[in-house]
Amino acid sequence: MQRLHARYPFLEAARETVATEAVDLATVVEGDEAVVDRARQRVITAIESGETGEPHRDTRIELLSYPVARVLVSMVDERVLVRKYARAEAATAYDRFTEDMTDTTELKSVESTGLDLSDLLAEFDLRDAVREGADGEYRIDVGTYLPLAEDLWDDGWRLVNQPLAAGEVPVGEDELLTLVREAIRGRIDDGLPFEVPESIATALEDEADEIREVLAEMDLTQDIDTVVPDLFPPCMKALLDQIQKGEHLPHHSRFAITAFLTSIGMDTDEIVDLYRVNSSFGEEMTRYQTDHIRGDTSPTEYSPPSCATMQSYGDCVNKDDLCERIPHPMAYYEQRIDDADDEELEDWRENGDGSDGSAASGD
Known about the structure:
There is one protein chain. It is built from 17 helices and 3 strands. It is mainly α. The chain is globular. A hairpin with a 5-residue loop joins strand 1 and strand 2.
């Protein structure tokens, strides 16, 4: 097993190596504790840090930990985990191949462990779609550019902001490498989750449970800045409805909905305005509490409570089928956002109707 494949396990050649070696994953997960531990670390570090952790010094363990990690992600079967894991693997690969491309060390191992740009373009069938200009810039076919850039949040990636010419988009090398990173993320994401054989799932159940616990306690909304009440989890939709009706919320309920709203991008002024309809509304206290939860006036930015905590306080109401498979209200919302069509993603704040009481009445 080559060090290159352990360093870049998403490569087709790495997959073929595992297949050629006739590796039996059932045997690996039952008897190779080091592989399972590294796989568990890959997934948990992806959740917590957005990368996959320090590689194992043993090439075989590092390479085999990748398919086992994919098994664990499939067992947990949460869309938010798939997204985080795919992004983390892609981010790790990006760090590695950009390091490879800037490595000018003359003395290298006889066995290459790096990739160059040509290798990466070939891996993802991008050679014919990307052309290098005389000025060191690149041009990429618009039909190739669009799917690679669709999940990049900065407005600069939008086609309307690009100087499109003759069906091509000009990009610098850094931008091209970012698009390659997105190609890696897409390959990893597209294959997950998959059906896991019972014999393998049974052997990995403890590790999968640990990942579920970590997932439930994490702030899962680093990339969300969209307020669509119709897509809220039932518990948060109910709390928002109570606010808009002017009903009094107990402290734990008020904390839960406020933490949820700050986590999806609402600012303090917007949240304070929501509470104005309440007969016991006090702007100074509401603003203080919201800033505290947000982390502006406290050392901690608070995340919304997990589903288990919501249930213990009696705030878990109107559960639907998705609730049965989701450990956290934010995981629910991210999956609904991810599954929604573009026309469904009309941000509540853009309508200017955030306090008219109608937004949470989508039932």
